[in-house]
Design brief:
The complex is a heterodimer. Chain A is an alpha+beta fold. Helix content of chain A is 43%, strand content 19%. The chains are: A alpha+beta, B alpha/beta.
């Protein structure tokens, strides 16, 4: 087997893709956005409950996708819960650079190690969109636009 | 059955220089000819030679090179006319691809002939490029688009089609072979029934021309389109066959270049024949390359190519069927050498990425046939498509790489 494939499909990723966390549609969500990847037809809906002071009180998602996109969405919802809007966007910014291979000094504070499991994506440029689809939808949900597309 | 009994597969593979390359340090296993086919040395040489030795613009120049270039360009038209058995050279129009050919017919024939309430009949097997141009012209003219359903095997449902045909039907546009699942449609019956209803038929032959002998007199299509790059020719060249009497009545699609007869500011008159639809400088060298590609497949023989591919399809279907987690999507009785499949618990994109690391190139996604994917209730599939240069070792490599997918996903 190939090292870069093992790196891409780590146990943690396979686990998140088979058992995605926060895979639901919360009734009290007050922000949501739909993400779509026309290349593969994959879709994701991201639901956020934003509290006062821009705090993300709840984050969840539903959708269809590959292991990379489901794992990334699952981990994202866990990580951004309890963060402020600004913090979530800051993490996404760093994460995007990480999976594109543009940032070797990725630092997302306490979440750095967790997100590093997705760093293997940088060896597979065709899969960057899979890894970032839910994150784009998350920022769209916060900004109020309700649909994003990776094309 | 041994490949050698039908034709010399090893010699054919040597005709394609790309098989000398490696992918991720592995020999290339190319199973994506349905998306685009590899090019034999004869085509590459023809393109090189056309640019290096005979190149000039066509039709206008009085100098030597323009004449040489024109002769080669027009010789290709004759090669293609003969290959598809078109009635005349005026029935063979060079376009940039199959999509442009369809858009041309939709805009020109459709634009001139469709009225509000008229119907355009498509099928669930269509590629997006044989759906969207019809939706665009339907919107402009007030016509309606309908689609013939397919059954659980992916077969075109002839009975439903016959029920849909009626006085409102003006155009039927169907694929000859599905790019996504390989179904070969009963094209002759489809065309005859449409003609009985007074409709004209456009056939998307992009997937058929590399695998089957297609004869315009035999199938009776009014329009038949295909692209050059899937039949081992260059990119940027397509063909539109149209019956002369229909083309003669159709308005031009684009203006400029060879489609012009005489221009004044008061009135322009248009060229006749194929020139009317070849605006601007045409894809000269690409057309020459396509003619060479057609000569190449004829030198091997489409009957032999077809037999070889059918034997590979049977072998691959048998091998893939033995893998429990694999489900083949589309099992029509008459199928071209295309296998679309899904794997339990694994998304096609993950399959594609993993098998690629073994040097195996397959297509994953919706194959620009989303209505068909919706029919089978999948967002996408993995697709292996075979061409004349594939062999059983390629199938074995695919099967082995699928086992590595299972290994990773447990």
């Amino acid at each position: 087997m190939f090292d870069d494939l093992r790196e891409l499909y780590q146990e943690v990723i396979l686990d998140h893709s088979k058992h995605p966390r926060n895979f639901r549609h919360p009734e009290d969500a007050n922000h949501e956005a739909h993400g779509y990847n026309p290349l593969c037809g994959d879709t994701v809906n991201v639901y956020l409950k934003m509290g006062h002071n821009g705090l993300i009180e709840d984050a969840a998602f539903e959708g269809k996708g590959c292991a990379i996109s489901l794992a990334s969405a699952s981990m994202m919802t866990e990580i951004i819960k309890g963060k402020t809007e600004g913090e979530a966007k800051f993490i996404f910014d760093g994460f995007q650079k990480l999976v594109k291979g543009e940032d070797d000094d990725f630092d997302a504070g306490d979440d750095t190690e967790r997100l590093m499991v997705l760093a293997g994506v940088k060896e597979f440029p065709m899969r960057v969109k899979c890894a970032t689809l839910a994150w784009h939808a998350m920022t769209s949900a916060m900004d109020g636009s309700d649909e994003i597309s990776t094309e | 059955m041994n490949d050698m009994t039908t034709f010399d597969i090893e010699k054919i593979r040597r005709d394609f220089p790309i098989f000398g390359t490696e992918v991720h340090g592995k020999p290339l296993i190319y199973l994506d000819s349905g998306a685009s086919a590899q090019k034999p040395t004869v085509v590459l040489d023809a393109v090189q030679k056309a640019y290096a030795e005979t190149y000039a613009n066509v039709h206008r120049g009085v100098h030597f090179l323009s004449q040489s270039s024109t002769e080669l360009y027009e010789a290709s038209r004759e090669t293609i006319r003969a290959h598809i058995n078109a009635g005349s050279l005026d029935e063979v129009i060079f376009t940039k691809n199959a999509t442009e050919s369809i858009n041309l017919v939709a805009a020109s024939y459709g634009g001139a002939n469709l009225q509000p309430g008229d119907e355009i009949i498509l099928s669930y097997l269509e590629h997006h490029s044989n759906i969207v141009p019809w939706q665009l012209i339907a919107e402009k003219t007030g016509a309606t688009v309908r689609a013939v359903p397919i059954d659980e095997h992916g077969e075109f449902m002839l009975e439903s089609y016959l029920d849909m045909l009626g006085p409102k039907t003006k155009i039927v546009a169907v694929t000859h072979i599905s790019n996504a699942i390989g179904t070969i449609t009963p094209i002759r019956q489809i065309i005859d029934a449409a003609h009985d209803a007074g409709a004209v038929v456009l056939v998307d032959g992009s997937q058929a021309v590399p695998h089957l002998k297609v004869d315009m007199q035999e199938i009776g299509a009014d329009f038949y389109v295909f692209t050059g790059h899937k039949v081992f020719g260059p990119t940027g060249i397509g063909v539109l066959y149209g019956k002369a009497e229909l083309l003669a009545k159709m308005p031009p699609y684009q203006g400029g270049g060879d489609m012009i007869n005489r221009v004044t500011f008061e009135k322009t008159t248009y060229a006749k024949g194929h020139s009317k639809f070849e605006a601007g400088t045409p894809p000269i060298v690409q057309a020459i390359g396509l003619g060479t590609a057609i000569d190449y497949i004829n030198s091997i023989g489409l009957d032999k190519i077809g037999a070889h591919e059918q034997s590979l399809l049977a072998y691959a279907t048998e091998q893939l069927s033995q893998i429990n987690s694999v489900k083949i999507i589309g099992q029509a009785k008459h199928k071209a050498s295309i296998i679309s499949f899904t794997m339990e618990g694994v998304h096609p994109h993950d399959i594609g990425t993993i098998v690629d690391r073994s040097g195996v190139a397959i297509r994953v996604g919706h194959h620009c046939a989303q209505p068909l994917m919706d029919h089978f209730d999948v967002a996408s599939t993995a697709r292996a498509s075979f061409a004349l240069y594939n062999n059983r070792a390629d199938v074995d490599a695919l099967v082995a790489s699928i086992k590595s997918v299972q290994e990773i996903f447990g």
